[in-house]
Amino acid sequence: MFTKHDRRAARARRHRRVRKHVSGTAARPRLAVFRSLRHIGAQLVDDDTGRTLVAASTTEPALRAVLGDANACTTTGAAAIGRTISERAKAAGVDTVVFDRAGYLFHGRVKALAEAAREGGLKF
Fold first, then answer.
1. Is the pLDDT of residue 4 over 90?
2. pLDDT: is 2 or 75 the higher one?
3. What is the spatial distance between Cα 43 and Cα 56, in angstroms, rounded to a whole number?
4. What's the pTM?
5. pLDDT tens for residues 15-48?
6. What is Dmax (Cα atoms) for the chain?
7. How far apart are CA 61 and CA 120, in angstroms?
8. 23 CB contacts (<8 Å, ≥6 apart)?
9. SS3 assignment for the chain
């Protein structure tokens, strides 16, 4: 059976392997996803300058008021973050991104966030 440490190390290895090839620019920033047991967050990162352009997370008070604590860790909460990040990206003038799942498997909350961002108008 895998321990918590083994799973974390395996995800870190997958993330390092993917980040060798995935990089964001000002024209096409990287949509980085972070998932914890209780929350999910996403941010658009310009790796050339090392700046975060746009961010959204279920820890934000405005989104917590809308979602409630029960939906913050579900696919409903992840979809809300996907819609929010796409709206904020459009406001910042970004319509094309590179998706960085950060070593997480593409299912569940990560998939819900990505699909909601695509429905919101982001292309990746």
1. no
2. 75
3. 6
4. 0.88
5. 999 888 888 888 899 999 999 989 999 999 999 9
6. 46
7. 22
8. 30, 47, 98
9. CCCHHHHHHHHHHHHHHHHCCCCCCCCCCEEEEEECCCCEEEEEEECCCCEEEEEEECCCHHHHHHHCCCCCCCHHHHHHHHHHHHHHHHHCCCCECEEECCCCCCCCHHHHHHHHHHHCCCEC
The two tokens of residue 107 are 């299912």
Query: What would the two tokens of residue 105 be?
Result: 């498997």
By C-alpha distance, which of 8, 30, 38, 37 is closest to 85?
Answer: 30
CA dist., res. 102 & res. 86, Å (int): 19
Which of 41, 30, 28, 33 has its CA nearest to residue 11? Answer: 33
pLDDT tens-digit readout, 50-94: 999 999 999 999 888 888 777 778 999 999 999 999 999 999 999
